[in-house]
């Protein structure tokens, strides 16, 4: 499978530790945020991708956080190839950092869906009640003939961490 240079940069950044990079998420490496990436002969994508992170997050028993992300994706032309949703959070005051993914699996049919960002601590410091930062990034690709059509987008937001729900 071939990727464009910007997509390779995106996924190389994804696989770097967020702690090493000092970033919440590799979205800074996404040079085509909100854009369409076609590999091989360009195939037009007639879809959109939007991401919105909810303002409130929940502190978990292990000191991490859970937050919700609204994603509208597609529809994309062709047949599904792969989908991936990544998430991260950081709290400068406590020094906490976490990374993970979105669940359940991403669907690109043009319908807005709410996903849970399940992130795991990547620092020894836990999150605390109060303000923090959250990020989410999504890439979705379909195959159209011999080509791959991808959409990708990312979002950042200040969040507020509260205690567990009753």
Provide structural commentary.
The chain is mainly beta and 166 residues long. Helix content is 9%, strand content 51%. It has helices at residues 5-15, 18-21, and strands at residues 36-39, 49-59, 65-73, 79-91, 96-103, 113-121, 130-144, 147-162. A 7-stranded mixed beta barrel has the order 2-3-6-5-4-7-8. Strand 7 and strand 8 form a beta hairpin. The longest helix is centred in the N-terminal third of the chain and has 11 residues, at 5-15. The chain starts with a helix and ends with a strand. Mean pLDDT is 79; it is low at 1-46.
Question: How is the secondary structure organized here?
Answer:
Blueprint (H helix, E strand, L loop, with lengths): L4 H11 L2 H4 L14 E4 L9 E11 L5 E9 L5 E13 L4 E8 L9 E9 L8 E15 L2 E16 L4
Parallel strand pairs: 2-8
Antiparallel strand pairs: 1-8, 2-3, 3-6, 4-5, 4-7, 5-6, 7-8
Structure summarized in a few sentences:
With 166 residues, the protein is mainly beta. Helices cover 9% and strands 51% of the residues.
> Mean of residue pLDDT?
79
- Helix and strand composition category: mainly beta
Number of strands: 8
Determine the strand fraction and express it as a percent band: over 45%
Q: Nearest-angstrom radius of gyration? A: 16 Å
Shape: elongated
What is the CA-CA span between the terminal residues?
A: 47 Å
Unreliable residue runs: 1-46
Q: Number of helical segments?
A: 2
